[in-house]
Write a structure and sequence with these properties.
- The chain is built from 14 helices and no strands.
- By secondary structure, it is an all-alpha fold.
Length: 283
């Protein structure tokens, strides 16, 4: 009798778990569904019924409205893609390389170097933004994508994350064996260390890409040419007087901004899941 009751209790608990998971999933996806639906509706429809799950037929008219109001989704999409992809690649690669140098080598000022990285991590962007702009202006990189891409080489948060991942997960025996076989340090890093760190790199790539894609503060300071504006900069203009009643166009602009983030997540999520599964079976 006790076994039957325990089985019934565990079954009820599983049902409750599934219910909670489904509820959280619906709550997480509901705002995105509303945004997608509202992107297909007119401004009057949204004002009458702000929440609806039935798509309308105003998608292309909203897109045409954006094009006629100095909103260039293709140009801004291209600019955001160049900045985000380049910054993500540089940040992930060089941060992993820096973390590897901290984990794999013993040198005198290693602890002091890591302390400096942690200190820089505590500084918000608003503290050094004025000095950064002045520096970019003096070297002629204002209104240039390089001013937003090159600083990504130094990413303290990514260095910290990759270091914490490598300490328990990177087998130094493999690195030592490769050195004995005569492999160079960069070959070891590129062919051995990077494949072992794919789950952590994929995780950081998602975070960095989302941060760079949604970045509005620094591009607003550095980019003055409208031909170089990013998607967030374009969307930020939708709150002006000319667009304040065109809610369908606003939702469409937000949808165009969010779509690449979903694509990057779905492309890299398999590496994160593989890393979790690998950690689950590791002895």
């Amino acid at each position: 009798m006790s076994k039957v009751s325990s089985r019934g209790g565990s079954f009820a608990f599983k049902i409750f778990q599934y219910f909670v998971c489904i509820l959280l999933t619906v709550m997480s996806l509901f705002p995105f569904v509303v945004m997608i639906v509202n992107a297909t509706r007119s401004s009057s429809q949204i004002q009458q019924h702000s929440i609806s799950l039935i798509p309308s037929h105003y998608l292309f008219s909203n897109l045409e409205f954006l094009k006629t109001k100095t909103f260039h989704p293709l140009i801004s999409f291209r600019n955001s893609a160049i900045i985000s992809v380049s910054a993500t690649a540089l940040a992930v690669y060089f941060s992993t390389l820096t973390a590897y140098s901290i984990v794999a080598y013993d040198w005198k000022v290693k602890k002091a170097f890591f302390t400096v990285i942690m200190a820089v991590l505590m500084l918000p962007a608003t503290v050094y933004s004025i000095g950064f702009y002045q520096f970019m202006y003096k070297i002629g990189l204002n209104n240039n994508f390089a001013a937003l891409i090159l600083p990504s080489i130094a990413a303290p948060a990514t260095v910290f994350f990759m270091r914490q991942y490598m300490i328990p997960s990177l087998p130094m025996e493999i690195v030592q064996s490769a050195r004995i076989d005569g492999a160079g340090e960069f070959r070891i890093f590129n062919q051995i260390v990077l494949p072992l760190c794919k789950p952590a790199m994929a995780t950081q790539a998602i975070f960095i890409f989302v941060s760079q894609w949604n970045n509005l503060f620094m591009p607003m300071i550095l980019l003055s040419d409208k031909e170089k504006w990013t998607m967030p900069m374009m969307v930020s203009q939708l709150s002006g007087d000319a667009y304040k009643t065109e809610y369908g166009a606003v939702y469409l602009g937000l949808l165009l901004t969010v779509l690449p983030i979903f694509v990057v997540y779905f492309l890299l999520s398999k590496y994160i899941i593989a890393g979790v599964a690998l950690g689950g079976v590791k002895e």
